[in-house]
């Protein structure tokens, strides 16, 4: 978005529609000649990253080998208030194995502090791996699709051990198939569960559609995307290969769009997920 001119163009009246003066700090000037709006905007993601890193360094220095920031916030492709701020903790050998449960208790104390905070509780997501859970020599139970995400992560403590891992295309395809199947099964359970209200069904359907869509993109060899930006790839490269309507509606719902037609969205989403599973077989 272009920045409004700092002063009214020569020859234009100050009240010209569509033209708004801004002050030296970038804030628009109001009718009274004073800057409008806040000078500083709160960034929950930045604050959470900084504070969580400090706490891990302070209280878990003996257990943690690496702390990674992963997901869409790394490249600022996140949807504010909707995307998670994802952390991946990798324990050292001493804190893994028999001591894993004890290490998890120490980590939980920190995580719960943020989960109980109204500012951070809805966006923080933490995953923990033991020292031997990071793939070596092409062998791992950790999904290869997650490996691709972790490789793009930023190390907040230590190094990112995923960056040197060689990922085979066939391994990613197998992982993508499993990923799509899981989301289809989850969506089928959601639709048939009478105890889930309509709002939650809509939210969980969005997650299933976006997850299935990401599985499809991974299978096609795509790597440089996140759930928040998957829509761009679908609209640019895959709109002629499958009906991307459910993906478009899901993305719009994440953006809180109010003009979307969600009639028949859930059954169409089920067809979408089934189609992807069939295509990846």
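Sequence proposed for the structure above (281 residues):
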């Amino acid at each position: 978005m272009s920045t409004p001119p700092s002063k009214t163009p020569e020859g234009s009246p100050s009240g010209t529609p569509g033209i708004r003066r801004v002050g030296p700090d970038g804030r628009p000037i109001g009718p009274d000649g004073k800057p409008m709006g806040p000078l500083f905007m709160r960034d929950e993601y930045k604050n959470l990253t900084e504070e969580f890193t400090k706490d891990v360094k302070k209280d878990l220095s003996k257990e943690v080998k690496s702390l990674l920031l992963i997901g869409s916030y790394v490249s600022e492709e996140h949807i504010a208030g909707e995307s998670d701020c994802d952390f991946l903790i990798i324990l050292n050998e001493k804190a893994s194995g028999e001591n894993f449960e004890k290490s998890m208790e120490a980590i939980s104390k920190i995580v719960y502090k943020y989960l109980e905070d109204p500012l951070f509780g809805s966006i923080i997501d933490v995953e923990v791996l033991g020292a031997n859970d990071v793939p070596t020599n092409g062998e791992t139970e950790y999904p290869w699709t997650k490996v691709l995400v972790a490789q793009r992560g930023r190390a907040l403590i230590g190094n990112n051990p995923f960056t040197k891992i060689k990922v085979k295309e066939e391994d990613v395809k197998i992982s993508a198939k499993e990923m799509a199947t899981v989301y289809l099964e989850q969506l089928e359970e959601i639709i048939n569960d009478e105890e889930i209200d309509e709002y939650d069904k809509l939210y969980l359907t969005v997650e299933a559609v976006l997850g299935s869509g990401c599985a499809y993109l991974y299978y096609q060899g795509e790597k440089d995307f996140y759930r928040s930006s998957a829509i761009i790839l679908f609209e640019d490269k895959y709109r002629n290969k499958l009906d991307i309507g459910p993906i478009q509606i899901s993305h719009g719902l994440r953006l809180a769009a109010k003009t979307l037609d969600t009639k028949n969205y859930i059954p169409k989403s089920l067809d979408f997920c089934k189609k992807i599973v069939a295509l990846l077989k």
